[in-house]
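Q: What structure does this chain adopt?
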Amino acid sequence: MPRILMTILYILLFIVMLSLLIMIHELGHFGAAKIFKVYVQEYSIGFGPALIHKKRKNGETYFSLRIIPFGGYVSMYGEGTELEDGVVVDKSRSLDGIKRWKRGIILAAGVTMNALLALTMFFITNIAFTDHQLYLRNMTIAPDSIAEKAGLKTLDVLAIDEEVEENSKTWKPTDTSSMHLIDSKAVVTYSDDKTQEVHAYIDVKNLKNYKDIYLNKYIVMYASKDGGEEDLHVDFSKQIPVDTNFKSVSMNIKTVIEFNEKRTKGIKFEDHQLTFGNDSNGGLEDFGYSFYLETIKPKPFFKAIGQSFVDFGESATLIVRTFGTLFTKETWNSMGGIVAIGFESTSVLQNLGWGKFIYLWGAISVNLAIVNLFPFPGLDGWQLLVLIVEGTTRKKIPDKVKTIVSIVGLALLFAFMAVILFKDLFTYVF
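A:
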């Protein structure tokens, strides 16, 4: 299939998935409003000019599909909606005309539907798809390979990062980093038999495809800083290329051995010396080491249900923790909006398959539910907060105050979204 056609299909799939999340969210508000007989003038997916704007015969609600698919709304009588000419609706059918607890249910119904959608997506991935879990610290060793002859075995744990210390009880690999130290004193030998001591790292930021998990493809080497201690001061501006002058590299790989003796518990390390050459294609020879890939079969019905709630909890916890560190550099660098979701979900589908793709959109649905609960103008959480304050004080907040706060809040929200959009464009497009 031509690349341009595939790109169009991926864009359409992204729009469909995003619209599904929005449609389900707004369907929650719409359904709850109908249950409590609140007059709903319009149920819309998207913003801007309408592509479709239809009302069922003898119906009272317009169903709209608008040109900008990144949002939606349910227009209910009593929240500033102007009724059509000639339409008369009793005050008891307005949002303000029903009991507060009913309003609360209507406002919370959107995030509830997103939570249910997320659980459904997690359930589908657990019961219908074979899952794959890739472990960067466990290894699969090929028979009769250089790695096996050096004493490495399948499921051995690779000791990486600079926190490695002999007999350390506090070994904590840096999970958030894509660059992991293997050996600070690896030796490169060139075709003229000259040698150079280098720092050897694994760089796994581009490791996304389960069919390409061989360690030799992700080893990068750097020189030491001039005058620096060889085992500490790496110069990341001086990468050692694997070219025609390159002959071989000798590297010490440490594996982790956890021990639990009578009164001693901790970690020991075992050394394995490997020497491997140039593959003649500008890369390191495959020495028989690949990252461990665990294949997990679909779960039975009840286990799939249980795992779906676990997945939901993990996604929610991750999102809350992320917002807890919102203003840190690390969180800012990993933050993304609509463009990032489009590119990343496409990458997941291409490299990891439909199971992971549906799982990702389940996590996005959790994200949408939690974010909408924030008490910020323009979000459901803000309207719930207003409802709680008015119910507690038994006083209605003046419409003018709510309007001013909403305008300021929405301006800040759209400004933040614009910043994220430009960040995404520079990251993924430019």
